[in-house]
Amino acid sequence: MAPDRNLIVIVGPTAVGKTALATSLARVMNSEILSADSRQVYKELNVGTSKPTLDEMRQVVHHFVSTHSIRDRFTVFDFARESHELLSRIYQKMTVAFLVGGSGLFVDAVVNGMDELPDVAGDIREDLNKQMQQGGVEMLFAKLSKLDPDYAEVVDEKNPRRIIRALEVCLGTGKPFSSFLGQSRNKPDYEVCKIGLEIPRDTLYERINERVDKMVGEGLVEEVRGLSTYRELTSLRTVGYQEILEHFQGILTLDEAIEKIKRNTRRYAKRQLTWFKRDDQIAWFQPHQEDLIRKHIENSLDIILNI
To answer: Which option is the CATH number for 6-114+185-301: 3.30.70.360, 3.90.25.10, 3.40.50.300, 3.30.2090.10?
Structure first.
């Protein structure tokens, strides 16, 4: 591995404190952060995505925050390609960069490279898209749960693009989508240190509930109302936005929508932990253990932090 291409990866469930810790570390190390969050990348999604604060953005350069439009097609492949191009430029001026976020597929694509998935017949995707229009993403997720329960356990059940892609492979090959993951990759040439953040589950769930209430107070309903004409876009079929859209459609009362956001966010946090706990290269800490985390980074990368 190249000693001048160190990548510090900070992962964990939503609301655990990844951004605050990463900003603190990156600031004193004079480094930059790549946000591995599949929702923060969209400039129109603000209140419901808990982006870094203006103060955090002033302290440290954050990439992939409000850089694309919800009208753009932005996939994990795009993120991996743009991240590697960006890291190449960053490593020309510094030896350490940060990759921070809770989107497991985004993190995995940068750290481990992309999976080579089999080609499948185009009519399978067309048929799945028709099924989604008739029965919704929930119906497709139920089908995926039967064909590939391992992947269904970690995928975002509100993301039709990922569910359809997985089902394409399952139906086209007769094998679970998860069986192709991690099989054939060209790993990037980075020296990687992986940090996982966790807190007691009850505490995490309290934070999630409080964060949702804060989002509502800061104008989540108004933000979604302004985006309602784009309700069919995949980028809006996500926790925090889908539930408010259901409220506008008369399916849920506002109180019911808020409670559903909290419940779905807790479920998402559980799936995030399930995904990351499978990686035995991640060293786990609590967010307040910053001194221990610094020491671990120094030992893992054989560097001395300028702190």
So the answer is: 3.40.50.300
